[in-house]
Write a structure and sequence with these properties.
Helix 4 packs antiparallel against helix 5 (76-88), helix 4 packs parallel to helix 7 and helix 4 (59-72) crosses helix 9 (142-165). It contains 9 helices and no strands. It is 64% helix and 0% strand. The protein has helices at residues 14-27, 32-37, 43-51, 59-72, 76-88, 93-101, 108-123, 129-137, 142-165.
């Protein structure tokens, strides 16, 4: 079986070298998941375009979706990365764990978002009318609904890459729940 590797800057395309340089400046390092994507000359750039697209969701809402999806798919890499980022966005450790479990009782509006996200995953999009009504009644819009699905798709990409390659985790490990 072919061993999957995490390339360094010298082993990637010129375009990916530029991305590595930008990541190093912005984050202070190139996360292993991004480096793994650089095994493809175009995947990393394409993924970052998706990840950094304009969205109607705020940063805390995006991290909530990232956390619930990563837990649902049991992606240790993404659970760890997004627990770290979630804390940077203002969540407590306990709140990140609650979100990963599929609720956010500490914030009723956010709870409807997390509930919807988990329901989309567990029903492959066949969400009950009640959950959708709760989402819209909380003040979310059709634009938000579409952006939630895009966020789920974004996170599934990295969750599945971790499942396939077991990319080494380079963030503090998220607590098990």
């Amino acid at each position: 079986m072919k061993k999957m590797t995490i390339p360094n800057r010298e082993n990637v395309s010129t375009d990916n070298q530029s991305i590595f340089d930008n990541l190093d400046k912005a984050v202070g390092f190139v996360p292993n998941m991004y480096a793994f994507m650089a095994n493809s000359p175009t995947a990393l750039g394409d993924y970052l375009t998706l990840q950094n697209r304009k969205t109607s969701l705020n940063n805390k809402e995006k991290e909530a979706i990232n956390l619930v999806v990563s837990e649902f798919n049991n992606c240790d890499y993404c659970k760890s990365a997004h627990t770290t980022i979630g804390k940077m966005m203002g969540y407590t450790e306990e709140q990140t764990i609650e979100i990963r479990k599929g609720t956010a009782i500490f914030d009723s509006k956010l709870n409807t978002l997390v509930t919807l996200g988990k329901a989309i995953l567990s029903t492959k999009g066949e969400v009950s009318e009640n959950i959708k009504a709760d989402f819209f009644n909380a003040g979310y819009t059709t634009e938000n609904l579409i952006d939630v699905v895009f966020m789920i798709g974004d996170k599934i990409i990295t969750n599945y890459l971790f499942a396939l390659a077991k990319v080494p985790i380079d963030f503090p490990l998220a607590k098990s729940i």
